[in-house]
Design brief:
2 strands, mainly alpha, two-stranded antiparallel sheet
Length: about 170
Amino acid sequence: MEAFDKALERVVTALAYLASAIIPCIFTMIVIDVSIRTLGVTPPLFTSSVVEYGLLYVAMFSAPWLVREKGHVAIEALISILPSSVQTALAKFMYTLCGLAALLFAYFALKLFLEAAESGQQDVRGVDMPYWAQFLPMTIGFFLVSLEFFMFLMGLRHYYSYDLSEIKDEV
């Protein structure tokens, strides 16, 4: 299982790097679009569509990495005052709930992806994009998020530190 977790880490990290590479591209496109507009010239029509897709890819490709790195909000002050047995039970319940919710979202995103790919529909805005391109990152991202939560559930890692000094020292 540890080998699977290491492979998952490599995939999640690679997607996070890809998401990080998309951000400066989005920034550059916006700066160019605004600069062209300021000069009184009509900017390219595709900028807003590509930026919207880029933001979706950034969010969905970075989400699994955020789970792995414990980057989401957790209320540890409340959890830390609970008895140890309750902390463990609550953590396992939350890992299960979050993993299943993410898996459910991945399932529905996959269904939408397959329907869109089969139909061949185009998302017609400033530039024609295949409609399935909006569901691909959701399928991948939510599936990987579910795997990350299930890794916590299996005890390979722990999401909560239960040590408030650790949180305070990192802030």
